[in-house]
Design goal:
With 234 residues, the chain is of the alpha/beta class. The chain has a single domain, classed as Rossmann fold. Helix content is 34%, strand content 15%. It has 9 helices and 6 strands. The strands form 2 sheets. The chain has a 4-stranded parallel sheet. A two-stranded antiparallel ribbon has the order 3-4. The radius of gyration is 17 Å and the shape is globular.
Length: 234
């Protein structure tokens, strides 16, 4: 059985001066100044719908215009890549919960999406048992506290345990998460902020948004730490 999360938070707290990436001295926060500077910027301008970089400001990128997603907007801090990917992996697979706190603080330092409630992207029950925690929820907790918004971690569930998105080609990911989520609450008239660690193709977040809007959500905004950027056109 996985150890309680409080134990891992205590371990992180006992090592406040160790950089999560290089292991060197970190004077403020979990990263040293050098590693913090190395985190990949997402760049401007971005598509306001999916946060993909675009060549010039526009209401939406070509992909979102051709295939409008169910979500309305996306706010992201970094581009997903080295060395940020090491922080994400250490959170998911090595229980370095200080990474979740770091992501939340960085997200709070940027634009705050408007909303009435924060909903983390859920894991399947099998993956939650295996991992012992949901990284999206660990990021969402400090965001909800800081903004004074309710955190709904139970109304949205993942009902179908599909293969991890990271193992699939980009074009197969949308089918992989189709009908994967269900909601037990009425979100009528509410603006929902959906929190996750990384947005890749947006297929998972699109499926989440469709489920929330099927249950009355007026608007859905993704709030993520990082956005993966494809090599193809946005």
């Amino acid at each position: 059985m996985p150890a309680p999360l409080s134990i891992f938070r205590l371990i992180d707290a006992l090592l406040p001066s160790q950089c999560l990436l290089c292991g060197g001295s970190a004077q403020t926060g979990p990263l040293c100044d050098g590693c913090r500077a190395d985190l990949p910027a997402l760049g401007e301008p971005r598509c306001p719908v999916c946060a993909a970089p675009v060549p010039f400001p526009a209401p939406a990128c070509g992909r979102c215009l051709a295939h409008p997603p169910a979500f309305d907007a996306t706010v992201a801090v970094w581009r997903y890549g080295f060395p940020l990917d090491s922080l994400v992996q250490s959170l998911k697979f090595r229980r370095r919960l200080a990474s979740a706190d770091f992501f939340a603080r960085a997200m709070l330092d940027g634009p705050h999406p408007p909303g009435d409630v924060i909903v983390p992207v859920p894991l399947s029950s099998a993956r939650l048992r295996e991992r012992g925690f949901n990284q999206a929820l660990e990021i969402a907790r400090p965001l909800a506290r800081a903004l004074g918004l309710p955190l709904d971690a139970f109304s949205l569930v993942r009902v179908r345990d599909a293969p991890p998105q990271s193992r699939l080609p980009w074009k197969a990911r949308q089918d992989n998460v189709r009908h994967a989520f269900a909601a037990s609450a009425d979100f009528s008239g509410r603006a929902v902020i959906v929190v996750d660690d990384v947005m890749t193709t947006g297929a998972t977040l699109d499926a989440v948004a469709r489920t929330l809007k099927d249950h009355g959500a007026l608007r859905v905004t993704n709030w993520v730490a990082a956005r993966a950027v494809s090599r193809g056109p946005a």
